[in-house]
Amino acid sequence: MTSVLALRLAGPLQSWGASARFARRTTETAPTKSGVTGLLAAALGRDRKADLTDLAALRFAVRIDQPGTRIRDFQTAHHTDTDKAMPVSQRFYLADAVFVAAVAGDDALISTLHAAVRAPVYLPYLGRRSCPPQGPVDLGIRNVRDPVEALKTEEWQASHWYREQRRHDRTVTLTILGEGTADDRHGDALKDQPISFDPRHRRYGLRSVVSSAVDVPNPRFISAGRNRRAPVPVPRHEPEALLSPMDGP
Questions:
Q1: Which of 56, 95, 49 is closest to 72 using CA atoms?
Q2: Which end of the chain is less crowded, N or C, counting CB atoms within 10 A of the terminal residue's CB?
Q3: What is the pLDDT of residues 16-55, one digit of tens each?
Q4: 243 assigned to some structural domain
Q5: Into how many domains does the chain fold?
């Protein structure tokens, strides 16, 4: 039997690179399969040279609940022996983004992964070690076979402040990036199918990514003109109230 593990990927910064060229490290607009596979392998405590066959075979999909903002960071470094400056590198990140990822596979493997993300051997990170998650990534196991179908019914996971901005929308339209077949002409090719994380020879294959949209209920929905919340009174700033009155002569 097949089941799906759902993961909430949220944090101040995320970076999901599918390619890097010299000192320029970019990020995709959503978590990659290789990045999430690395998170799961770390949670299991696997070495970078370990076989990835079982994890690479998982079917993967991700939903963009809060797209975030793309930012760029310039980094400098020096050689410790000569103090000679190294080339300035550019690192790109997604700030304030929230995603829901789903992986589907054999029930036994999904149960093992579920236990691992709840008590990881190595702490998970969102694409790079400098990007810790905002909280627990585990959303639980779903008794469905297809990760895309699981994401269609998953509750909207955006941040509280972001949902407040959409409180007059009964539903929100979210993008789902699922996997297509090898000969799927409607999908985009992305080189992030993990083959090996061995630092001496990292290898990734091509996979097809198919985009679709889903409307999900907005749990913060407030009908326009109804149930309007009263404005919160702003207290007057009175620092003098903390001072004791001066004694007379």
A1: 95
A2: C
A3: 986 666 567 789 999 999 999 999 999 999 999 999 999 9
A4: no
A5: 1
